[in-house]
Amino acid sequence: MIDYQSILNNIYARVTRETDKGKIAKYIPELSRVDPNRFGIHLKLISGEEFSVGDSDVGFSIQSISKVLTLSMAMSQVEAKIWNRVDVEPSGNPFNHLSLLELEEGIPRNPLINSGAIVIADILVSQLKDPKAEFLKYVQDITGDPSISYNLKVAQSEKETGFNNYAAANLLKSFNNLNNSVDAVLDFYFHQCSLEMSCAQLSKAFFLFANKGLCLKNVARLTKSQAKRINAIMLTCGFYDEAGEFAFEVGLPGKSGVGGGIAASLPNEFSIAVWAPGLNPQGNSKLGMQALERFTTLTNQSIF
């Protein structure tokens, strides 16, 4: 039997000694105030057992990790329509790159880059009467945690500085791939990215991707096929222009955010979340990447 707690303790001792912890995301002013020394991991097994180390219960802005959650909500409602408006191919470019969007006439490469997630946000704005409230309730329900909420200061900070996202949304609108107003869609998008969750809460949210679409309450939020497809998209597109590196080094479907979080899953085995705010040049958590590589090496558990 694997001694998960000893492995997490080993990882914590090793990575927290690193002197180069990466760089905090400063282009969103609220994120620049985070302590760069924070580090936590939470592991949730399909069996129900949980293991953690460090700052695993401290909330942080999940940012782009939210794209997986909005995608899962949209797929559960209108999956067939999604793939007419967004592709499922790796972009090979940074998360906020716009050149491919123009080249491919307004069809984002995948739903986990910013432009693709904005299309998913547009779908939810069309489908839901109160998108922000209903999406928050969805996340609270799949985690069983009603305390999860938006960080309104982060949402406002993104609204005031998100010029690239305004550009992407307007470009999508010019190609008729946005049905609602740019302001309405981005208001929802900035709020979804501002969700504040801990590693413990994130591991519970990602439990359904490890559990064939069943959430913690054993309720089917996705079909087995939908859960499989989301895992596939995470593996190939979850880390932007570093997706290949993450698959090579870690070997898990996962998603990163510029808040320093990474959430990942191993189908039929576990979900795991790590938080270390400092980022590498690709915008992924520097120590988080190292921690997950060490985790799959020490446990000998990955999809490969």
Give a description of the structure.
By secondary structure, the protein is an alpha+beta fold. The protein has one domain: Beta-lactamase, CATH 3.40.710.10. Helix content is 46%, strand content 11%. It is built from 13 helices and eight strands. It has helices spanning 4-15, 66-82, 99-103, 114-127, 131-143, 152-161, 163-174, 182-193, 199-205, 207-210, 224-237, 243-249, 286-299; strands at 40-45, 50-54, 60-61, 149-150, 195-197, 254-256, 261-266, 270-275. The strands form two sheets. It has a five-stranded antiparallel sheet with strand order 2-1-8-7-6, with helices on both faces. Strands 3-5-4 form a three-stranded antiparallel sheet. Helix 2 (66-82) crosses helix 11 (224-237) and helix 4 (114-127) packs across helix 7 (163-174). The longest helix has 17 residues, at 66-82. It is globular. It starts with a helix and ends in a 5-residue tail after the last helix. The model has no long low-confidence stretch (mean pLDDT 95). Its EC number is 3.5.1.2.
